[in-house]
Amino acid sequence: MPSPIAHSLLGLSCGLVCLGNPRFLGGRKSVVSAGILLLGFTALGNAPDCDFIPGLLAGELNRFHHGPTHSAAWCGLVAFGVWCVWRGIERAGWWVLSCLLATAGLHLVADWATADSAEPIGIPAFWPMSNSYFKAPVDVFASMEKQTIWAIFQPTNLRPALRELLLTTPLLLAAFLYWKRKK
Q1: pLDDT tens digit string along 16-62?
Q2: How far apart are CA 179 and CA 18, in angstroms?
């Protein structure tokens, strides 16, 4: 599955698109508000991988990976929960909810379109309605070694990481240009 590099850049891209809406943040252009927002979108882009934490604690990083947190239901609930909290702090309309859903959903799309050789192959996209795992017919992202936290930093992961940068940086640039034009 992609590393936090791809997931972070995809989340950041969604945050820039959201921030590009002139009504967003009540029209304020605060650098602090924008920075917090972009940090939040980056975190949301990585949120489904919170299932690494129990594996990390158990000493087997992948032990619980690709479970229910990699489903549309989980991502939808998390995005909706963030939106509800956000609405309690400041006005957040449907535009914000769609950006949050897109951010969480892009994590699933990226994982779905990544080379996967470890069982179970793919993601449980429709959990809890289905326990089936789904995998794209074409691999966009290369698989990375991640049996342990230290395995992530192996030289063999450099090529997949560079590929992630190559594929996601143009999206980030397009989102940045959109934000800059709307700003």
Answers
A1: 999 888 767 655 567 778 888 899 999 999 999 999 999 989 988 88
A2: 8
Cis peptide before 160 (omega within 30 of 0): no
Q: Could you check whether the bond before residue 48 is cis, i.e. omega within 30 degrees of 0?
A: no
Instruction: End-to-end CA distance of the chain: give it in Å, rounded.
Output: 34
pTM of the entire predicted model: 0.91
Smallest CA-to-CA distance from 41 within 20, 26, 62, 60 is with 20
Cα 102 to Cα 13, 53, 54, 116, 154: the distances in Å are: 10, 24, 26, 23, 31
Q: Can you state the angle between helices 72-89 and 94-112, rounded to 10 degrees?
A: 150
Kind and range of the H or E element at 76? helix 72-89
Amino acid at 104: A
Q: Which two tokens stand for residue 19?
A: 């921030």
Higher pLDDT, 79 or 95: 79
State which amino acid sits at residue 45.
G
